[in-house]
Amino acid sequence: MDLKVETEEMESNQPPPIEVFAHSSTLHGISHIFTYERFCVKRCLWLVFFLGSLTFLLYVCVDRIHFYLEYPHVTKLDEVTTPIMTFPAVTFCNLNAFRFSRVTRNDLYHAGELLALLNQRYEIRDMHLVEESVLESLKVKADFHNFKPRPFNMREFYDRTGHDISDMLLSCHFHGTECRAEDFKVVFTRYGKCYTFNAGGDGRPPLITTKGGMGNGLELMLDIQQDEYLPVWGETDETSFEAGVKVQIHSQDEPSFIDQLGFGVAPGFQTFVSCQEQRLIYLPPPWGDCKVTPMESDFFDTYSITACRIDCETRYLVDNCNCRMVHMPGDAPYCTPELYKECADPALDFLVERDNDFCVCETPCNMTRYSKELSFVKIPSKASAKYLAKKYNKSEQYIKENILVLDIFFEALNYETIEQKKAYEVAGLLGDIGGQMGLFIGASILTILEIFDYLYEVMKYKLCRCSDKKHKHNNNNDQGTVLSLDDVKCHPPHSLVCEQLRGLCSLQVFFLFPLLEQQRKCVNCA
C-alpha cells in the first residue's frame, strides 16, 4: 500500500512535458518547435530559424568577448581654465662648458688632451690655427718645465671654470618683478655647470603666475661671453662648435635632461617661448603600458622618464667604467679626464645613440610636460646698439655677438589634459551580450534561469524514479522476486540519491526559486 502511495505522489511530481514548457517559456521560437502539431515542415523551418539565430548570437558574443580581451582605450582631450598656474622650472646652460681664463696650468696638464688643446706629448695642437692673443696665453699655461702637478678633481674643475650666473645675467624679471642671481640654482648636466630658475625645494615653493601672455612670465637678458669660449682645434664631447645657450622647460618633479630635451637660443635674437601645460594620464596594463610601481632608485624619489634615464646611465657607467660623470648622482668616484676620454664619453654616446635594450624607461601614469611655440626678433636694433653698448660698457660688435633675450610665458591660464580611458568595460560587454540575446532569441538572464530550472526538475524526477525502482527492488528481493535488467541499473543507495536532491533543493533556493515547494518534493522523495 505504501509503495502505491509513493508511486502516485511521484507521478504527481512529474515535470510538465517539453511542449508545455516551450509554450510557457520566455525564450522566443521554441514554442513553434516543440508543439503537439504533426506538421513537420513548419517545425523544421522554425528549428532552422532558431538555430540560425543562435549561431549568429554565438558569433557576436565571441566577437564582443574577443574585443574586450584586446583591452582597447580611447584618448580624451580637454582644456581646463584656472585662475592661477604653477610656473615651470627653467634650466639653461652655456654651450661652452669651460671658461678659458679660468683654466689653470694644472687643469691643462690633466685635462688638456680631453679638451683637445694639447696632444699626448703635452704640446699645443695645431698652433697655426690659434689666434695670437690666445696662443700667448696658452703657451704660458702649457709650460710644464719644472712643473709639479697637483691633485685634480673633475667636479671642482667643472664648478670653477663653468660660466658664472652673476657674470652672464644682465637682466632678469619675473611677472614684472626683478629677480637676481640668487634665484637660480646650480645644477650639473652633460653641458657642465648650468642654472635652474624656479627649481622649488629647499623650503622655497614654486612660483605661480596669475596672467597669461608676454610680460607675465620670465624674461632674461644673458651675456654668453664668447671671448671666454675654449679654442676648438678638434672634436670632443667637451667642446662645442655652437654659440648660445641650451634651455629646457620642465616640471619641478623631474630632473633636467637638457642635452636630450633642450632647445637652443642664439645670441643676437630675442626669443619668445609661448608655453602650454599638458597633463597626461595614461592607463596601466593591460589597457596601456604606463609604470604603476614605485621608483626603484637610490637617487630619485619620484619616477619620471628623465629620472629613469639618468639612473640607468649612471649605473651603466659605474658598471663599465667604475666611475661616474660630474652630472650623475651617487657616491661613486668621479671619472678622471683619462676615463672621460677613453671610457665614459664613448660608453654614454653608445648608450644614448645605439643601445635601446639596456635603458628601457616606461611612461609614468601621470606626467606633466610643456608644449612650446618659439618666435624670434633680432636684437639689438640699430637704434639700441649704442645704448646697450654704453649701458654694459661693451662694444656694439660685442653686443651683437653675445647678448640674447629669452622671454618665457604661458599663452593663457589654462592647461590641456590628455587622458587615456578604457573604451570597453565589463558593463559594456554585458550590455552588448544582453542586447544581442534579446535581438536574436528574445532571451535574458531570467530566461536562462528558466531553462536551468526545467532541467533541474527533469533530473530530479529521473533520479527519484530511479531511487524508487531501487526501493521496489529491495522489497521484491525479500520475497524472492527476479530482477529485470532495468532494475539492476538503478543501483544507487536510496538515502544517497535523496541527499543529492536535498542539495539541489538548497542550490535552487540560492537562485531565488520557491523554497517550500521544492522542500516538499524532496521530502516526498525521501
Automatic annotation (TrEMBL):
The keyword Ligase does not apply. This is Acid sensing ion channel subunit 1. Keywords: Cell membrane, Cell projection, Disulfide bond, Glycoprotein, Ion channel, Ion transport, Membrane, Postsynaptic cell membrane, Sodium, Sodium channel, Sodium transport, Synapse, Transmembrane, Transmembrane helix, Transport. NCBIfam families: ENaC. The keyword Lyase does not apply. It is found in: Cell membrane; Cell projection, Dendrite; Postsynaptic cell membrane. The chain crosses the membrane at residues 44-60. One of its GO terms (molecular function) is ligand-gated sodium channel activity. InterPro entries: ENaC (IPR001873), ENaC_chordates (IPR004724), ENaC_CS (IPR020903). GO terms for cellular component: dendrite; postsynaptic membrane. It comes from Oreochromis aureus. It comes from the Eukaryota. It catalyses: Ca(2+)(in) = Ca(2+)(out); Li(+)(in) = Li(+)(out); Na(+)(in) = Na(+)(out); K(+)(in) = K(+)(out). Pfam families: ASC. It is a multi-pass membrane protein. Belongs to the amiloride-sensitive sodium channel (TC 1.A.6) family. ASIC1 subfamily.
